[in-house]
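We treat protein structure as text, and this decision shapes the records that our systems exchange. Because each token names a local backbone shape, the row as a whole describes the fold. An entry from our holdings is shown next, in its original layout:
>
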Amino acid sequence: MDVYTLLKIVWAGLLCVLLIGLGLFVGMDMGVGTLLRFVGKTDGERRAALNMIGPHWDGNQVWFILGGGAIFAAFPTLYATSFSVFYVVMILLLFSMILRPVAFEYRSKATASAWRESWDWAFLISGFLPMFVYGAAFGNVLEGVGFHFDWMGQYYQDSSFWSYLINPFAILCGLMSVALSIFQGGVMLMMRGEDPVYTRAKKCAQWGAIIAAVLFIIGGVWVRALSGFVLDSGDPGMPSNPMTGQHVTREVGAWMHNYAVHPILWIFPLIGVVSMFVGAALVAKDSPHVAWWFGALSWIGTIGAVGASMFPFFMPSTTNPDQSMTIWNSCSSEYTLICMLIVALIFVPIILWYTSWCYYLMGGKVKAPAITDSHNY
């Protein structure tokens, strides 16, 4: 294996790590926002819930930037094509991501109940929608996306908003993502909250984990019946040009081929589904701190299972399979990947250390009476 091919594989792995971090940390905050109106029945309880993620939510959004930045730097062809294909989805995501910090900033600027109720709805929308879009995006790439290039390299899209977002399999994946975020958010509220928020969050976290596990199993069975993609020929060291150099065919059940060839890959879906059920059991036994780590394993298993199924595909094309985006044909140059790898090896551990330090430093229970006279959130 040459250096360029190895770098492509390494960066595909790093992208998976960033996507897991995004689902885990951003999903946790989004889960709290989705649950806000259900775990908090009074204004004080809702303010307490918001203050539990108040010191961390903006820092956690770094994972969005890291994920997008990694795709832009390491896989520019994939970045340009995917952001064009999912343009409407990106606008929805951007809208919800703008709505969220505004809600944090303005919710407690006025005491009128109608004012605060409106912003609480904004938290629900800006918590549910991004995680639904995140999961639906995985569903869409598993099904394949309608795009192709002409002889000049001009991009064309052959699928509508409704076909690539609002379809049964994408909805299932989106709801599973929301369920996992609810589990993670509920566990966070248990770790930092007290009754009655604690008890309500406990019920939500349990159901979130169970529903996510059930949807994950249904999705796994569904994937076996999907028309997947097979890379019949293609050079791993090929240049970043999706128009030439590879031949791809479609085949029902193709996404299970990698598991048949490498049975060790079954570890990912196994970790995913077991972690969800164990997480639900730990929540029932009032062990939220341990359950949080099983939530992390759930994201590892889920993203890992998708990556194992699709390797080496990133975004397959339904209209011209030969132009599908793969790890091999959508990467940056070898020099760029080397430079970015050095940057990643320096800064990703720093981000992980700093995030852990922040959670350690600003941990502990948040009590509603303690924030009654505060102007925060």
About this structure: Residues 3-39 form the longest helix (37 residues). The CA atoms of residues 107 and 116 lie 5 Å apart.
